[in-house]
Amino acid sequence: MNRTSFNVTCNQCGEAYPEDGLPYRCPYCGGLFDFGSPPPFDSDVIEPEQPGIWRYRRMFGLPEDAPPVSLGEGSTPLVWAKSGGREVAFKCEYLNPTGSFKDRGAATLVSMLMVRGVHEAVEDSSGNAGAAFAAYAARAGIRARVYVPEAASGPKRAQIATYGAEVIAVPGPRSAAAEAVRKAAEEGAVYASHAYLPFDLPGYASIAFELYETLGGAPGAVVMPVGQGALLLGVWRGFQALVAAGRLKSPPRLIGVQARACAPLWAAFTHGEATQAEVREEPTLAEGVRIRHPLRAEAVLGAVRASGGHFVAAREEEIRRGRDQLARRGLYVEPTSALVWQALEEMPADVPDPVVAILTGSGLKAG
Predict the structure, then answer these.
(1) Which DSSP letter does residue 2 get?
(2) Facing residues of 356 across strands?
(3) Residue 274 CA to chain centroid, in angstroms?
(4) pTM for the structure as a whole
């Protein structure tokens, strides 16, 4: 394998990612693997003949022999509409092939699985990541088994199964599904985790590249739902790459939104990191962000602070209002996406235009 551009190490002990297999954690210390500094944005190496996000493949930091696994993800439109007294650009990620932004990450993750010769893998998800993984695994000829919370949206569970993946419904909260899949990994299954592994992050970085090219510069702020925080972290790194390449003077402010029913990152940012331990995993309409212990919390919080951004926590009635307000503008999204509305209503006056809000999942997937 050509590893010229592949730079993934453990964030605790610094050990390089093994040359064989697909461990989801460092086998030496149990730490998380992550990329080093990504290659800077370089328009000279964009490959316009490649499908979707893969036009940016040379900026992903994946092994150079990583094959594009594509269903046409990326190049989603910006739709402008008024919110919070200003015109906002809504990045319609729900128009990706399986109906969510997760397709970008699944494409690059499954590409890595193919590099490593994986033929069968397990994953856990509240719905969207599982659907994306099932679709891209099917595209690549990989057998998939997806663990989901028993209360996960019916349309999402049906979607996962229709792609040919085995669906394992786990009683209890979202965290119970995560525990079940880790047990499967301990018994020998390849755990293609979108949370533990970093290989989905380059796919999300492509959102920053698209925004830069479409807007002709950086937005004033980017607002997005946050659960594990991979979307925010990937977008941040995409803008960092643009700054490193001299394309931007500074990145936009990042504004993460969580459901008040389960908002550990908001609590840590607003009231101090010690308060994370007090956060409960209560039921919420925004099932896609019901994550009590985000694995990369430190990195996500650091990105928001470095950008000059902040977190917002939306109550259930605010989530419903956001969903309805977006629908009145022709934007039919699931409740998790609707979190952004509250942040737009609370937007500080000093945030410069344009403001971009990422709509992460389709309303057709809400059960």
Answers:
(1) -
(2) 89, 222
(3) 25
(4) 0.95
Q: Is the peptide bond before 149 cis (omega within 30 degrees of 0)?
A: no
Q: Are 91 and 340 in contact (CB under 8 A)?
A: no
Cα separation values, 213 from 38, 46, 242, Å:
19, 12, 11
Give the tens place of pLDDT for each residue, 30-85: 999 999 887 789 999 999 999 999 999 999 999 988 999 999 999 999 999 999 88
In eight-state DSSP terms, residue 82 is E
Cβ neighbours of residue 146 closer than 8 Å, sequence gap 6 or more? 122, 123, 124, 125, 130, 133, 134, 160, 165, 166, 167, 168
The domains of the chain, with CATH numbers, are 78-101+198-365 (3.40.50.1100), 102-186 (3.40.50.1100)
Tokens standing for residue 263: 């908002």
Residue with tokens 């409740």: 335
| 3-state SS track over 186-213 | HCCCCECCCCCCCCCHHHHHHHHHHHHH
